[in-house]
Amino acid sequence: MGLHLHLLQAKLLASILLLSVSTQANFEIAKPNCMDRSGNISIPFPFGMSEGYYFNKSFLVTCNDTHYDPPELFWTDTGINITSITLEGQLRVLQFIARDCYSPDGIRVSYRSTSSRVLFRFMVNNIANKFIVVGCDTYAYVFGRLEYRKYQIGCISLCDKKDDLVNGSCSGLGCCHIPIPKQVRTVNVTLGSFDNFTNVSDFNNCGYAFLAEESAFNFSASSLFDLRNVKKLPRVVDWVVGEGTCEEARNNIYSYACKSENSYCREPDNGYGYRCYCQKGYEGNSYLDYDRGCKDIDECKDQSVHKCVKKCENTPGGFRCVCPKGYHGDGKNDGQGCIHGQSLVFEVATGY
Ligand SMILES: *[C@@H]1O[C@H](CO)[C@@H](O)[C@H](O)[C@H]1NC(C)=O
Ligand SMILES: *[C@@H]1O[C@H](CO)[C@@H](O)[C@H](O)[C@H]1NC(C)=O
Ligand SMILES: *[C@@H]1O[C@H](CO)[C@@H](O)[C@H](O)[C@H]1NC(C)=O
Ligand SMILES: *[C@@H]1O[C@H](CO)[C@@H](O)[C@H](O)[C@H]1NC(C)=O
Ligand SMILES: *[C@@H]1O[C@H](CO)[C@@H](O)[C@H](O)[C@H]1NC(C)=O
Ligand SMILES: *[C@@H]1O[C@H](CO)[C@@H](O)[C@H](O)[C@H]1NC(C)=O
Ligand SMILES: *[C@@H]1O[C@H](CO)[C@@H](O)[C@H](O)[C@H]1NC(C)=O
Ligand SMILES: *[C@@H]1O[C@H](CO)[C@@H](O)[C@H](O)[C@H]1NC(C)=O
Ligand SMILES: *[C@@H]1O[C@H](CO)[C@@H](O)[C@H](O)[C@H]1NC(C)=O
User: Fold this and answer.
1) Among 14, 120, 240, 291, which is most buried by a count of CB atoms within 10 Å?
2) Which residues does the UniProt record annotate as the domain EGF-like (predicted)?
3) pLDDT in tens, 35-47
4) Whole-angstrom Cα distance, residue 255 to residue 242?
5) Residues 6+ apart with CB under 8 A from 327
6) Which of 298, 271, 274, 273 is nearest to 284 (CA)?
7) pLDDT for res 147
């Protein structure tokens, strides 16, 4: 009987341990009883899939597990795929790429420009993304709206022969890329060619243009062909939880989104509004209520973090190293460590 019970307990414990291991973060990311993932994509609050679970309707995402296996996550009820959401304020969405293709005798056979009005609420991340143009007879523009004005930038990509292309190098021959300004809200991409690819038709008859995550695209000679089969590429967009500055947000404690006790508010580098973060020494979801949000990190669990030679004591938001009785010093591996005997100050004093 007793043994049986123990086995049961052990099994239960094991399954709990397994459960906590299989979730990526070691803290709660969503409200209680809320589905916090779609396939392998985590959905941290303020995002959520139904009323009561999201912060407000602006953070509605939809998981379609009836039609897709693994399930696909979409921005509200649009067809825009989300491939990741981070608490640091980024969202990765898949966006169509623009293309312009010709037959060998210079007749246009397909053309697609792109626009992204639907994502107007987000700022396009100006660090992770680049405007990239691929082709040997291609020019392309990206234009749209910044917060209060229009912008337009362009890139030209040419080459004479296939041998000119350099794998891994997008710097003018068959591929060019340029950074985008801050505060980009809408992105329209159009492209064209100078001579309908007639000079290069033996190895290239399509041009491509996209504003996408730079690390998701690696140029090589085969990109000229491979991109034909690529419909969408990821773009990183920045989300904020609310409008206005932190100061303005704090004035309305009801709508203020930094609910966790040990959280703080910060305005983004790109754009307007505010986000919430956990204070140093804490981790978790700063948007969740009070003690469900930011949790104290137990630095003492990890020797490589605390670097105490003897004993480590966890404190709220930090830790301290402790030396045993009869020792002194800062107790740190990379500091004084624990030194046997009275304190140095005392020894110097007795030296007089
Ligand atoms: C989810 O799984 C896919 C395919 O297995 C992988 O490419 C992607 O990086 C994963 N995403 C996350 C957020 O782990
Ligand atoms: C899932 O996607 C399919 C195909 O796009 C669509 O017909 C269906 O309504 C979607 N289901 C949900 C729950 O969104
Ligand atoms: C993205 O969403 C579309 C439906 O809009 C779906 O067909 C596709 O499989 C999804 N995933 C990717 C990686 O494109
Ligand atoms: C290039 O293509 C465009 C669009 O199909 C066509 O109007 C134009 O006549 C073509 N030019 C040449 C030189 O083939
Ligand atoms: C971008 O394209 C959309 C849809 O085609 C259009 O409504 C919008 O006016 C364009 N934006 C700009 C700045 O031209
Ligand atoms: C460049 O990459 C393509 C395919 O990605 C490969 O076939 C080719 O051999 C590579 N060329 C060089 C010079 O490495
Ligand atoms: C990009 O391509 C270069 C050269 O072909 C290769 O060395 C590198 O590993 C690739 N990087 C990624 C992220 O695919
Ligand atoms: C294509 O070839 C013609 C004739 O040689 C030349 O005038 C033109 O500049 C070339 N176009 C490009 C884009 O190199
Ligand atoms: C959601 O809340 C944010 C911040 O308070 C606000 O800016 C936004 O307009 C709200 N959206 C809706 C649909 O209520």
Assistant:
1) 240
2) 296-333
3) 787 888 999 999 9
4) 9
5) 310, 338, 339, 340, 341
6) 298
7) 78
Atom of ligand 9 nearest to the CA of 241: 4
More confident residue, 65 or 258: 258
Rounded to whole angstroms, how far apart are CA atoms 314 and 214?
41
Give, in order, the Cα–Cα distances in Å from 32 to each of 36, 45, 105, 330.
9, 11, 62, 42
Calculate how far, in angstroms, residue 92's C-alpha sits from the geometric centre of ligand 1.
12
Nearest by Cα to 28 from 241, 294, 259, 315: 294
Q: How many CB atoms lie within 10 A of CB 147?
A: 11
- Residue 102 alpha carbon to ligand 4 centre in Å: 9
Rounded to the nearest angstrom, the gap between the alpha carbon of residue 311 and the centroid of all alpha carbons in its chain is 37
Would you state the pLDDT for residue 28?
78
Q: Is the CB of 196 under 6 A from ligand 4?
A: yes
Q: Indicate if ligand 4 lies below 6 Å from the C-beta of 106.
A: yes
332 Cβ below 6 A of ligand 5: no
Ligand 3 pocket test, pick from 64, 68, 74 with the greatest ligand atom count within 8 Å of Cβ, gives: 68
Residue 195 CA to residue 146 CA, distance in Å, equals 32
pTM for the structure as a whole: 0.84
Task: Measure the CA–CA gap between 85 and 59, rounded to whole angstroms.
Answer: 11
Average of pLDDT values for 264-274?
A: 93
Ligand 5 center to 148 CA (angstroms): 15
Element (H, E) at 64: strand 61-64
Distance of CA 188 from the midpoint of ligand 5 (Å):
6
**Closest-lying ligand 9 atom to the alpha carbon of residue 249:** 5
Question: CATH fold of 300-350, please?
Answer: Laminin (2.10.25)
Question: What are the boundaries of each domain within the chain?
Answer: 3-88, 97-115+126-231, 246-296, 300-350
